[in-house]
Amino acid sequence: MKRFSWVIPTIYIIFLMLPIYWLVSMSFKTTNEILGSFTLWPQSVTLDNYRTIFTDPTWYMGYVNSIIYVTINTVLSVAVALPAAYAFSRYRFLGDKHLFFWLLTNRMAPAAVFALPFFQLYSAIGIFDTHLAVALAHTLFNIPLAVWILEGFMSGVPKQLDETAYVDGYSFPAFFVKIFIPTIAAGIGVAAFFCFMFSWVELLLAKTLTAVAAKPIAATMTKTASSSGYELGLLAAAGTLTIIPGAIVIYFVRNYIAKGFALGRV
Amino acid sequence: MNKTVNQKAWFFVLPVLVLVAFNAIVPLMTVVNYSVQETFGDNIFFWAGIAWFEEVLTSSRFHASLGRQLTFTFTILAIEVPLGVIIALAMPRKGPWVSVCLVLMAMPLLIPWNVVGAMWNIFGLPEIGLLGKTLNVMGFDYNYTRQPGDAWFTLILMDVWHWTSLVVLLAYAGLVSIPDAYYQAAKIDGASSWSIFRYIQLPKMKRVLTIAILLRFMDSFNIYTEPSVLTGGGPGNSTTLLSIDLVKIALGQFDLGPAAAMSLVYFLVILLMSWIFYTVMTRNEDQ
C-alpha cells in the first residue's frame, strides 16, 4: 500500500497542470487555430501574442503597475506588522486579545462590500488611481495576516534571547534590528510571501481604485476580454505571464510556505 | 510563554491600528450610513430607518443567493478538506520530491483570480477547451454556459483545483511536525494504519486543519472574481453567489441603500459563522 502512495500526488499534480498547460499552449497558437480547430498542441507556433504584450505600453505597464503596488504593500504590511507582532508575542496589555481578534475579522471582510466605500474614501483624500491607493487598500487583509504569521514565529523564540541582549547592553532598537530580526528571518520571508500572494491575486479592489495611471495587469486583461472581441491567444499569453512572478517567488520560499501557517496561532 | 504586563506595548501596535482602522472603520461607517438612508440621486439623502434591512431579510432574492452561497461553501469544504488530507498523507516526507511536489502544488495559489476564472472559462468551452471537448467526445452533453448543472460542476471543480493545495500545504505542515518516535511506538504496539491516522496524525493536524477550514470558509464566502469571470453568475441566476449579487445591486443598479444593508447582513453572517466554527473547533483545547 505504501509503495503506491506516490500515485495520489501524481494524479493530483497532473490535474493541477492540465488547465495551466491548456493556457500556455493556447498562448502559442494563432487566433485561427484556436477558433478553427481543436488541437492538443500548437501546430504552427507563433510568438505574436507575446510580441504584442512586450511592445504595447498599455500591456506591459500593467505588469509594472502590479509589481509596484504589490511591492509597496508587502514592504508596508511587514514593516508595521513587525513591532505589533512583537508586542502581541511578548507583552500583555489592555485589550490585547480583543485587538487581535478584531484584526482577524478584517481578514473576513468581503472585498465586494468595501469596493465602493474605498473608491469614495480614496477619491476624497486625492490618491485615487495611484499605486499607493491599491497598496493601502490591500493592507486591510494583509496586515492582519502578517501580524498573525509573525506572532507565531516570534512566540517560538525564547524570551531569554531578549533578556540576554539587554544584559549585554543592547538598547531596544539595536536589539530588535541586529539580533531579533535576523533570528526570525524565515518568518519574515513567509509573511512577505503571503502578502505578495494575496496582493498579487486580488483584482476587485485593484480595479476599482485605478483608472489609467496605476492600472493592474489583471484589469487590462478583463478590458481586453470584453472590448476587442475575445482575442483568446493574446489573453492566454497575458495570463501565462502572470503565473511567472508567482512561480519564482514560490521557488524561493518552498521550504517555508507550509511552516508559516502551522506556526501561527489561531 | 509568560508575558509581562506592559501598557507601553500599545505604541508598538499603534501603526497597525491606525492603518487598519483607517481602512476598516471609515468604509464600514460609509456602508452603515448608506444602509439607513434613501436617495434619488444628486447627493440628496433621506432617513430610511431599518427599511432596507427589512427588505433584505425578507427578499426571496437574498434568500436564494444566500442558499446558493451556503451550498457552494459547504460543498467545497466537504471536498477540499478530506481530499487535501488524503493527498498530504500520500506525499513523500523527505527527499528531492518534496520540493517538487510543494512548488507544483502551490502554483494555483499564486495565479491572479481573474486569470483562474479565464483559464477555466477557456478550459471548459465545449468546442475548443480541453475539458469541454473531452467530456463531449466521451458522450456527455456538457455546456456550462447553457446548463446550470454543468455550470455548478465547473465552478466546484475550479475551486477544488484552485484551493485544495492550501489544505494540502497546511495538513502537510502538521504531519511533518510529528516526531518519528510516535510512529515507532505505534509500530511496537501493532497499531493499524487507521488507528495511526485516528489517534496520532489527526490530533496533530487538528490545529492546522482548524486554520485551513476557517480560511477556506472565509475566502469561499467572499469569492467574487473567479465565478464572475467563469460564468458571470449565469446561466440565468443559477451561480449568482452572494458577492456577485451584491455587486450587481451596488454597481449595476446603483441601489446604494439596499446594497449597503445587504453588505452588513452579509458581513455579520460571515462573522457569526466564523465565530461558531472557531468556538466548536477549539472547544476541547483548553481542557
Automatic annotation (TrEMBL), chain A:
Assigned keywords, A-Z: Cell membrane, Membrane, Transmembrane, Transmembrane helix, Transport
Main localization (coarse): membrane
Membrane-crossing residue ranges in chain numbering: 7-24, 67-88, 100-119, 131-154, 175-201, 232-253
Superkingdom of origin organism: Bacteria
CDD domains named among the record's database cross-references: TM_PBP2
Gene Ontology BP annotations: transmembrane transport
Family annotation (SUPFAM superfamilies): MetI-like
Cellular localization per UniProt: Cell membrane
Domain ABC transmembrane type-1 stretches: 63-253
Annotated Gene Ontology cellular component terms: plasma membrane
Entry membrane topology: Multi-pass membrane protein
Family according to the record: Belongs to the binding-protein-dependent transport system permease family.
Name this polypeptide is given: Carbohydrate ABC transporter permease
Organism of provenance: Oricola cellulosilytica
From TrEMBL, chain B:
Pfam family, one: BPD_transp_1
SUPFAM superfamilies on file: MetI-like (SSF161098)
Any one cellular-component term (Gene Ontology): plasma membrane
Entry keyword annotation includes Transmembrane helix: yes
Chain ranges of the ABC transmembrane type-1 domain: 66-277
PROSITE patterns assigned to the protein according to its UniProt record, in alphabetical order: ABC_TM1
Keyword tags: Membrane, Transmembrane, Transmembrane helix, Transport
Mode of membrane association: Multi-pass membrane protein
An annotated GO BP: transmembrane transport
Transmembrane segments: 12-32, 70-90, 97-123, 160-178, 208-225, 260-281
Keyword Transmembrane helix: yes
Family the UniProt entry places it in: Belongs to the binding-protein-dependent transport system permease family.
Protein name: Sugar ABC transporter permease
